[in-house]
Amino acid sequence: MSIAVRGLSRDRSGVAMVEFTLSLLFLLPIALTGIETANLAVTTLRLNQLAMMASDNVARYRGGIDEAQVDEVMTGLAFAGRAINFGEQGRVIVSTVEPNGQTGTQAGYKITWQRCFGAKNVVSSYGLEGAGTTDSSLAAGIGPTGNKVRPVDNSALIFAELRYTYKPLVGSAFMPTREMSSLQSFTVRDRSSQTLTNTIQLSVAKRRLCDAQHLAAA
Hints:
Layout: H1 2-9, H2 15-60, E1 63-66, H3 67-80, H4 86-89, E2 90-99, E3 109-117, E4 157-166, E5 178-187, E6 191-197
Parallel strand pairs: 1-6
Antiparallel strand pairs: 2-3, 2-4, 4-5
Helix pairs in contact: 2-3
């Protein structure tokens, strides 16, 4: 019996397994936090790309701009944002900004029209459609304080604002749910009119309006 006990005391066959199990208690949280951090970085990059896509593509239409063309851009965003569930968790607000045509103290810029996509129920932080039309509320342009943008002379600016709720891959213990945003703007190219037309008569339900009745993930 004593020989068997002495043999058992010298047996080290399970030590590595025990050590590996104990090390997981420290390594697993670090690994999961790293995964969440990497996913957050990738999501940030994708949001910036989506904002750029929205503003650049709307600005590219020459001659004029139509509801059907805006719908094409939003459909593209829905497809491009599938990897991060942007349609369900986000909202893009696209605004056309141009001079308001006023003089004196009322001179400034206005949001001629505004269109949206996404199921997140938010409005623009920088002005709704029609803002600045008859006053100088957008005299300095549009955007956050200290970083406002404005259109160049004789043109208009497409301003895209993205809002998104980031949900962690693993759980809130490693990365909390957080609100994210991205802003991008592009100057309109060779467009004679900034009025948004509706030549194919898209119904109100199918237009990308920015009210609560048009919250949709697709």
